[in-house]
Write a structure and sequence with these properties.
3-stranded antiparallel beta sheet; 2 helices; 31% helix; 28% strand
């Protein structure tokens, strides 16, 4: 279970390493292109609800993997995730497959 930390203002988001590897490519591609977007995820086990953040190239992002070597990237999954984000304009972490 890896961690994605955005803006250092909240606890990191726990994400399985395989999904995190795909998110790393997805998020970095969008931000490198100067394409901001909304990202939403569950608040966590301690309280119900959801959190959303505006992903922007100027805001610090840290991605931490728990395991070595990095997981394999599935090109079909990457295409699906990118298409989904481009259609919605929002990345909803708990709806990703």
């Amino acid at each position: 279970m890896g961690k994605l930390e955005y803006n250092s203002s909240r606890p990191p988001i726990d994400v399985e390493d395989e999904l995190l590897a795909h998110l790393k490519i997805l998020i970095s591609t969008k931000l490198r292109r100067q394409e901001s977007f909304m990202m939403t995820w569950p608040s966590g086990k301690k309280r119900p609800g959801r959190l959303s953040a505006w992903m922007h190239p100027s805001i610090p992002l840290v991605i931490e993997f728990d395991e070595e070597p990095p997981p394999q990237i599935d090109p079909v999954r990457m295409t699906h995730l990118m298409d989904r984000l481009n259609q919605r304009g929002e990345l909803i972490l708990d709806e990703l497959d």
